[in-house]
Specification:
This protein is α/β, with parallel strands linked by helices. 40% of the residues lie in helices and 21% in strands. The protein folds into two domains: 111 residues, Rossmann fold, CATH 3.40.50.720; 182 residues, Dihydrodipicolinate Reductase, domain 2 (2-Layer Sandwich), CATH 3.30.360.10. The protein has a seven-stranded mixed beta sheet. It has a six-stranded parallel beta sheet with strand order 3-2-1-4-5-6, with helices on both faces. Strand 11 and strand 12 form a beta hairpin. Helix 5 packs antiparallel against helix 12 and helix 6 packs across helix 8.
């Protein structure tokens, strides 16, 4: 199988390394606006270097991975679909929801599979939690808690272009709450603040936020996010039902310190960043994409799926801005 990669920044290079180690992948074709990045990836992974995304699509690839800047996602997705080439695209689909909806409408009926990159769907813990919910082991859920805490803020330039903490960070929690519970979010209420890096507030964003999501069956989901967690990268999920409760992320590398007398858990080295926390999930995610390319499965995370998480992020941003509950239907209609 021959896979193209468009964009070789941090995540693109990481995907190139992962793909080069998959048995299903025979060769890579890479392209990046910065020629040195493409050349370095070509040398490191034995990949063919193309001078443009269009050249990647003309090179006979069986599938493409889009890891370019967000602004380029719609154009590159549509180019791949026009060429009849299955696509894996990092989230988000587009910078704005209107652009994302335009992509969804443009690819409808194309018959070309598009997989959007939400890696938590491929993490063993989250997979097991979803299986427990679907099997009825927890009974009806009443409370869900989802957490993403980064060890330190990204650079100011990243913050300025990120779209905000809800669209950039919390959107992973929104997606996984939907996927694990199998329910839709109908209303949100969000609060936030700035206690850390001044440049985040200067960009009109919050560095710490919490959101209460009401699901369509009445379950409440509490989502917590921060750009500041000195102990490490903390990603957790709790599911509380009337029969049982389960958790994801409560393991020895949890970046938390217990002060209970005689308790030594957790005793492992905390996760430093998302790439070590989700290394196995990224491998499973791209393995799934090779199965999509081979025609053995349909996309496990569609454009429509990604847009649902995006609407929740939009509603939370509006809720924070206006200090009120916001229904998802309201932002869809805006």
């Amino acid at each position: 199988m021959r896979i193209g990669i468009m964009g070789l920044g941090r995540i693109g290079a990481f995907h190139a390394e992962t793909l080069s180690g998959l048995d299903a992948v025979d060769s890579l074709v890479v392209a990046d606006p910065f020629a040195d990045a493409a050349k370095a990836a070509g040398e490191r992974f034995g990949a063919e270097v193309a001078d443009s995304p269009e050249a990647v699509l003309r090179s006979g690839v069986d599938g493409v991975v889009i890891a370019a800047a967000t602004d380029a996602h719609p154009r590159l997705v549509l180019a791949a679909v026009a060429a009849g080439v299955p696509v894996f695209c990092e989230k988000p689909v587009a910078r704005t929801m209107s652009e994302g909806v335009a992509v969804l409408e443009a690819v409808a009926g194309s018959g070309v599979e598009i997989q959007i990159g939400y890696n938590r769907r491929f993490d063993a813990g989250f997979v097991a939690a979803r299986a427990a919910v679907l099997a009825g082991e927890l009974g009806a859920l009443h409370t869900v808690r989802s957490t993403t805490l980064d060890p330190a803020p990204p650079p100011p330039a990243y913050i300025a272009a990120s779209g905000g903490i809800f669209r950039d960070c919390a959107v992973h929690d929104f997606d996984i709450v939907r996927w694990v519970t199998g329910r839709e979010v109908v209303e949100v209420y969000a609060a936030g603040g700035n206690r850390g890096a001044d440049f985040i507030a200067a960009a009109g964003d919050a560095d710490t936020v919490s959101s209460v999501l009401t699901l369509d069956d009445g379950t409440l989901a509490v989502v917590s996010n921060s750009r500041h967690n000195a102990r490490g990268h903390d990603v957790r999920l709790e599911l509380h039902g009337f029969l049982d409760s389960v958790a994801v992320g409560w393991e020895d590398r949890l970046p938390m310190r217990s002060v209970e007398p005689g308790v030594s858990f957790p005793g492992g080295t905390p996760y430093d960043f998302f790439m070590d926390r989700f290394a196995a999930a990224y491998r499973a995610e791209l393995t799934a994409f090779t199965e999509v390319v081979a025609g053995r499965r349909t996309s496990p995370c569609t454009v429509a799926d990604a847009l649902e998480a995006g609407w929740i992020a939009e509603a939370c941003a509006l809720s924070l801005r206006e200090h009120r509950p916001v229904r998802i239907d309201e932002v869809r209609a805006a």
